[in-house]
Design a protein that fits this description.
By secondary structure, this protein is an alpha/beta fold. It contains 12 helices and 10 strands. The structure holds adenosine-5'-triphosphate and magnesium ion.
Amino acid sequence: MIATDPGRSRVKPGDPIVVCEGVSRVYHVGGEDVYAVRDVSCQVAAGKLVALRGRSGSGKTTLLNIISGLDKPSKGRTSILGHETTRMNDRALTDLRRHFIGFIFQSFALLPVLSAFENVELPLRIAGLGARDRTRRTTELLELVGLGRRMHHRPFELSGGEQERVAIARSLANQPGLIVADEPTGELDSVTGLQIMMLFRRIVQEQGVTIIMATHDPTISEIADETLIMSDGRMSHDIPEELQGTGILDAAHLPGTLHGEIALAADAGGLSTRADRNSARDAPRPEDVQLPPLPPRPVRVQDEGEGDSPPSGS
Ligand SMILES: Nc1ncnc2c1ncn2[C@@H]1O[C@H](COP(=O)(O)OP(=O)(O)OP(=O)(O)O)[C@@H](O)[C@H]1O
Ligand SMILES: [Mg+2]
């Protein structure tokens, strides 16, 4: 059984949390087979920030949907913590998503009539948490994402980056082991996008969560522990030339209105810009170019050896 109770047995950072084996997803359109994902095998280790990159239409969303059990592959197997999700029934998958996976969508998917506080609190209400615990956890989460002073604003009273941070706080509400984020920075300006990515980095380190994040932004490869590349439905680890591009960190040394802000944001997150990397090449300063290592913080997961039984939150 998979559980979210931090007091129970744990998975160690580095253990495989998601495994895909020979996964394909075929759509039949107008008498033709369209392979959205083709024979993908991969593993995501617990406690990592993993980037999923690829051009539009390369299969990122399809793969994330399969990993999180929102969609079933036409062929192949997926598992979460050794439990084969491709064999779970709908109820078990709903439980898995409710208790173990946090979702962040590009459109944020916040409820417009609810305040930031109420949006984050909602999954805790659904999970049946008492009022005092809900208030404590919701407040903690909004403070974690830097929105302690915007709690009672409704989404239309928040900026895009602030709405994104509410969505991040909400995805963390039920203490998930895994967060699946589909282009969470796609609609944000570069500096805000960088700040959000840095927040993901911090969440992985401080909360021991695993994050898989689909994005077009090359900068994520500098921040993530690992980058997986999708190309025409297939996966590789090599970043092709077409995706190498200029990441926002590289833009930090260019003249322009944003470059100072980017450098400041990168600096605050302990990241190096190209200028830093170049000077590091002349006079090595490892502390400028290394991200801090992950602390040995366990992920909250329990395995009671109940085969493919549905996960539960208690
Ligand atoms: N329901 C569907 N029916 C038919 N084809 C589909 C369907 N959903 C996706 N596809 C096709 O599968 C391929 C992969 O789509 P997917 O949405 O996974 O790409 P993506 O990498 O997430 O792209 P983007 O970066 O634009 O979000 C695309 O060619 C798409 O047209
Ligand atoms: Mg997509």
